[in-house]
Amino acid sequence: MPHPFDATSKHMVDARPREWLAAGGLPPGVSLEILDADLSAVSRAADKLVRVLCDKAYIAHFEFQSGYDPGLDRRVLVYNVLAEDRFGLEVISVVFLLRPEAMGPGVTGRVLRERGNDHRLEFTYKLVRVWEIPVASLLAGGLETLPLAPISQVSEAQLPGIIEAMKRRLDTEAAVEEGKELWAATRILMGLRWSPDFVGQLLRGVHGMKESSTYQEIVQEGYEKGEEKGMEKGMEKGMEKGRTAEARKFVLRLGSKVLGTPDADTLRALEAITDPSKLEEITDRVFDRQAVSWAQLLSSST
Predict the structure, then answer these.
(1) Residue ranges of the chain with pLDDT lower than 50?
(2) How many helices (H) does the chain have, and how many strands (E)?
(3) Deepest of 23, 58, 109, 227, by most Cβ within 10 A of its Cβ?
(4) Residue 211: domain span
(5) Number of domain units in the chain
(6) Distance separating alpha carbons of residues 180 and 72, to the nearest angstrom
(7) pLDDT tens digit string along 81-91?
(8) pTM for this one?
(9) Pairing between β-strand 31-35 and β-strand 48-53 as defined by DSSP bridges
């Protein structure tokens, strides 16, 4: 289940991918191509894939995470390997953690598995903690990464000046429609950290934001008319529901490849599991070949 933060982040990468390469500390390349990020042969689509042509061409893989996912390290590994298999190029993965709540013991930037002397898997990816990025670097950086400024290394007292600095740049450097999209992205991302009332006050002087196509796609009109108080709670609930559905989908696709097509009883048993952490544990058991049948896999999860 996509979240507003996913949609707006993907849109920003689409608009100016080179600026996101810089934000992720990746080689700039000579030319860039946004790729179809659908890796549905095994899992859902990655957030964004960009083919970067340079002396050593590669695929830049971006993920944007607003909530804690204990399976993030493993999921990034899966996306990385599937993307390399599909496009035949080295894949460099960067995950932007949009708020401190996205951190946790399952988010390390590394997967390491060893079994004896002959079996070893080591994978690393880059974690960008947005709340630790100096705001000055974002205000001086690319236009498409400007919406990260209000959720970077800033205090509440600094925000009015930051919004004014953003406004000066967007008024002079961005086309009208691009400015609308970037202000819409700013509002959505600010909701991760700041209260809706405070965000509304800061952005009151921004014109045309509601006409942004991104804003219209992501935020229902009721959000703007006073339903903000239930927004955060509803968002968290939706994120948990989406994580559960995604984890169940992953179990089905990966399990089907290893254990065969599940029968009706197995499908009902999986549907009854509503704890995403338990579903992710089942996925680990499939990866580690700890079951030879669906019945054994699910019986060990109870």
Answers:
(1) 1-2, 39-43, 219-233, 235-236
(2) 13, 7
(3) 23
(4) 135-226
(5) 3
(6) 32
(7) 988 988 999 99
(8) 0.62
(9) antiparallel
